[in-house]
Amino acid sequence: MPDWPTDPAQLVSAQRLLALETPAAWTPPADYLVAGCWVCFSRGLSGPGRAGDPAWGAAVVLAGGHVVGRSSVAGVATAPYAPGMLALRLGPLLNDVVRRLTPRPDVLLVDATGRDHPRRAGLALHLGAMQSLPTVGVTHRPLLATGTWPADEAGATAALIIDTDPVASWLRSKRGTRPLVVHPGWRVDLDIAVQVVRDSLAGRRTPEPLRLARQSARRARAEQ
DNA sequence: GCGACAG
DNA sequence: ATCTTGTCGC
Fold first, then answer.
1. Strand-pair category, A54-63 with A66-76
2. I need a labelling partner for A214 at 20 to 30 A (CA). Which of A94, A166, A202, A221 fits?
3. Is the CB of A141 under 7 A from strand B?
4. Gene3D superfamilies from the xrefs (predicted)?
5. Interatomic CA distance for residues A131 and A128, integer angstroms
6. How confident is the model at residue A36 (pLDDT cuts 50, 70, 90)?
7. pLDDT at residue A3 above 70?
8. Which ranges of chain A does DSSP label H, i.e. alpha helix?
9. Cβ pair A78, A91 in contact under 8 A
10. Contacts of A28 (CB under 8 A, 6+ apart)
11. Contact status, residue A93 vs residue A37, Cβ threshold 8 Å
């Protein structure tokens, strides 16, 4: 496995190569294991931050709605946040958390974009490629893509496009709440990405693997 | 030139 | 991103 890029020029170059790759499409098996990963920072931190910011990462694996594995780690951010460069800030820590995760999930949810990115290679795609793991991105809003919201009905979707390319999808995960953005990641296409997120909702707005990973990361922070 | 900009 | 607080609608 190659090392995680450590400077902006290296990341941009890695993203350009990543965008050209065409790995075999993945489809979920019956009773697949779905994981989520999350990073949280010190309370009160605001703005883009900087390299060395204390950070806590966690990942949770679910099987049929039950937690079957967890990992968490205390570490640091490796760069300030900049749009299109999130992988430089969070990549090494998330890579570490996911590497320690057992059992190995079939698919991983990441709070980041995929093809909705200046070089069509957001962190959800990048993390999956580094881990050889199918990934799905879930964010509150698009990075570059545009599209109107879906109907206010649970499960409704609407296209998010860059130029004419559908790169992500709005998904109304719960009626009466803001829709999520679902991003196909490594080895996952748009329809499968939406299916995986719908499968993991458990009636809430936020997919259960991400909600539990966030909870786990905050718990790790509280123990410091 | 200006604003917007995953987390 | 993170956090609190308040307010509204069911």
1. antiparallel
2. A166
3. yes
4. archaeoglobus fulgidus dsm 4304 superfamily (3.30.2170.10)
5. 5
6. very high
7. yes
8. 8-20, 86-99, 123-131, 190-199, 208-222
9. yes
10. A106, A107, A192, A195, A196, A199
11. no
Residue A2 predicted with pLDDT over 80: no
CB-hemisphere CA count at 13 Å for A130? 24
> Which nucleotides of chain B are near protein (any atom < 7 Å from a CB)?
5-7
A194 vs A169: CA distance, rounded Å: 8
Confidence at A72, pLDDT banded by 50, 70, 90: very high
Q: Chain C: nucleotides under 7 Å from a protein CB?
A: 1-3
Encoded amino acid at A198, one letter? R
Distance in angstroms (rounded) separating the CA atoms of residues A131 and A107: 11
The length of chain A is 224
**Is the separation of the CB atoms in A92 and A39 below 8 Å?**
no
Residues whose CB falls within 8 Å of the CB of residue A210, separated by 6 or more in sequence, listed in order: A36, A38, A109, A111, A138
A171 has a pLDDT exceeding 70: yes
Q: What is d(CA A221, CA A218) in angstroms, rounded to the nearest whole number?
A: 5
The position carrying tokens 């649970």 is A154
Give the span between the Cα atoms of A56 and A216, in whole angstroms: 9
Residue A20 CA distance to nucleotide C4 C1' (Å): 44
A129 CB closer than 7 A to any strand B atom: no
CB contact at 8 A, A177 and A154: no
